[in-house]
Design brief:
The protein is an alpha+beta fold and 157 residues long. It has two domains: 4-34, no CATH class; 76-156, OB fold (Dihydrolipoamide Acetyltransferase, E2P), CATH 2.40.50.100. It is 13% helix and 31% strand. It has two helices and ten strands; from the N terminus they run H-E-E-H-E-E-E-E-E-E-E-E. The longest helix has 14 residues, at 4-17. It is globular, with a radius of gyration of 21 Å. The chain starts with a helix and ends with a strand.
């Protein structure tokens, strides 16, 4: 019987291979994966741009001394990304009525489950690859994620 990690690796390989259809059959199992290559792209709906009043600076000195408002703090240079090992849907908690596996500021250990990525009706637990503190949740809960997409940023110990 194939283990969950082997199935994840197989799905990741198929997802990145660019193949439209794959069938694998052994004594233990049979799997067929077929992409919807003839699908019509869904239109992207964007909000209208908002006009924002920006300060007018007379000189370079004013620009340098201006307060850094609404600028997110840059991630530490040693931050490590926990990435999605497959294409699927990202979930921060085991079910909608339960708390998230981890939140910003939480400490995680290597091998600790931090989220779930659902792929083809299989719920795959994603584990931290490093011990440290969660400094950012990059992916949006219940949203699609791509292979190798950042899910979390961790500041390692």
């Amino acid at each position: 019987m194939m283990k969950a990690k082997e199935i994840r690796n197989l799905l990741s390989f198929i997802a990145t291979s660019g193949l439209d259809e794959v069938s694998i059959e052994t004594d233990e199992f049979k799997i067929s994966v077929k992409r919807n290559s003839g699908t019509v792209p869904t239109p992207v709906i964007q909000a209208a741009p908002q006009q924002v009043a920006l300060p007018v600076f007379e000189s370079a000195e004013e620009v340098e001394s201006a307060p850094a408002e609404n600028q997110p703090a840059p991630a530490p240079s040693n931050a490590v990304a926990i990435k999605s090992p497959m294409i699927g849907t990202f979930y921060r908690s085991p079910s909608p009525d339960e708390d998230s596996f981890v939140n910003v500021g939480d400490r995680v250990e290597k091998g600790q489950v931090v989220c779930i990525v659902e792929a083809m009706k299989l719920f795959n637990e994603i584990e931290a690859e490093v011990s440290g503190k969660i400094i950012k949740v990059v992916a949006e809960n219940a949203s699609p994620v791509e292979y190798d997409q950042d899910l979390f940023l961790v500041e390692p110990d």
